[in-house]
Task: structure prediction
Amino acid sequence: MNNTSSFINSLSALPLTSNGRSRSISGENHDGSKGGGGKEASRLGPSRKGRPCVKLKAGEETVLAQIDGPGVLQHIWMTVRDTTPHGFFVLRDLVIRIYWDDEETPSVESPLGDFFCSGFAATYTVNSMPIVVNPTRGFNCYFPMPFRKKARVAMLNEHPCDIERFFFQIDYCLYDAIPDEAAYFHAQWRRQPITVPGEDYVILDQVKGKGHYIGTYMALSALERYWYGEGEVKFYMDGDREYPTICGTGLEDYFGGAWGFITANGGEKAVETTFQTPFLGYPFYSNAEINYSHRFLGDCPPMRSFYRWHIMDPIRFETDLKVTVQQIGVCNLGLFERQDDVATVAYWYQSEPHTPFSPLIPAQKRWPR
Result:
């Protein structure tokens, strides 16, 4: 490959040709081979929608794609039903994992829904640049993911039963080489069901090496009264210990809003306004979700979902990175330390090898309140 721009896709780069070879893996072409798609037969005949989906066996990690490089994953699309007769939280029970080259531990590990900015195992639309969720549960990811030797995309099923129909398509491009300066994509999910007063929630830590931080997704369940979002997001980089190099001014400020996302309602109760833009969003707010599919009450705490993409402003680091957010609220008496239920996905690029992630918590502990 002669230059880095050979695998950068943008509107201005569309007229440029390259040496890339487009491929795609789905249920209809399990290895992405040239001329290998649509061979399965249905009752309509050969090559007539014979195998559009795959089964995910309970308790097993199913490899969806195994690709020899060099190449770049360009687009991932997935969809699945969000409930079964055996459980309501499929989107937290399924875990997406992506492995690069010869590594034994994943560089991407997150519940399926949260990776696509759909926390709480809930279904809603997301309209951002790199992550898009269309009706109904059409999960799309456009983060470019280069690899040199191999790429392996897998799905761990920790739901109580088999998932009979899982639909997916992974679009990628093969190249002769990947630039030396190209880093690897990473994403990690975390959750703290009850935060500790005075202790900052850790979005990401133990990152060693060179790279840049590109985004945060947060699913927050408020466990206390009053405004929840005075906590500041902090980036400790390249040897920072007690104090960070980058420190924000509040949670709603970090996600691109202001003054509590509040829209005045004629002097009555203030209303938080959801919004979605290419890089910043508050796509989901529900303080009265009720599950009508069974006879038991389904009341739950207020749930809020946010994303921030550092695409135009990546947070670059040379040797190490840690990202935290304070749990601070405010009421008529002023600021106070609070406790909430917080889950996040951190997205970043870095050189390999990466520090292995802490083990993912069990499926039931991932379920929303």
Summary: The mean pLDDT is 94. The domain at 183-357 is CATH 2.60.120.1390 (Jelly Rolls).
